[in-house]
User: What shape does this take?
Amino acid sequence: MKIVVRCPKCDAGLPVSAADSPDSIECGGCGRVLALTWTEALRADTGVDQCPLCAGREFYIRKDFDPKVGLTVVVIGALISAVFYWFGEDLIAYSILGGAALIDLVVYGRLGDVTVCYRCHSEFRGKYPRTAPHFDLHTADVLEQEYERKIGRR
Ligand SMILES: [Zn+2]
Ligand SMILES: [Zn+2]
Assistant: This one.
């Protein structure tokens, strides 16, 4: 299992391999040393039961999707179709626009799921079965505030 631990101080994403299960990791952004606690399920890639950073047990599933990439495809598609539209080739313009949206959809559909910690936003990628529920805004509100109080951000 690959985990991207989110530094509570500077928000840098720090990749960690659960197979190595280090006791701590030093943040490359701010130099802070983060203590990590590993469960058997994390090490064996059989499930995400407890967050190694914040010890939280609430997680949610989201598509492993970089919104910037999707947006780029649509923007490029829109630009190209604008050129055709300018030259009066409406049909081609609309086809390109539709094509860009389709590519976006295909890319989105092929993505796997990633488990995310509600509290510290660490991400878990691996072969383990996805059991966490989908994102719930209310839960996120409550748990994020609790965590931010704990690490002294509020
Ligand atoms: Zn940091
Ligand atoms: Zn966490």
Q: What stands out?
A: Residues 26 and 129 are 29 Å apart (CA to CA).
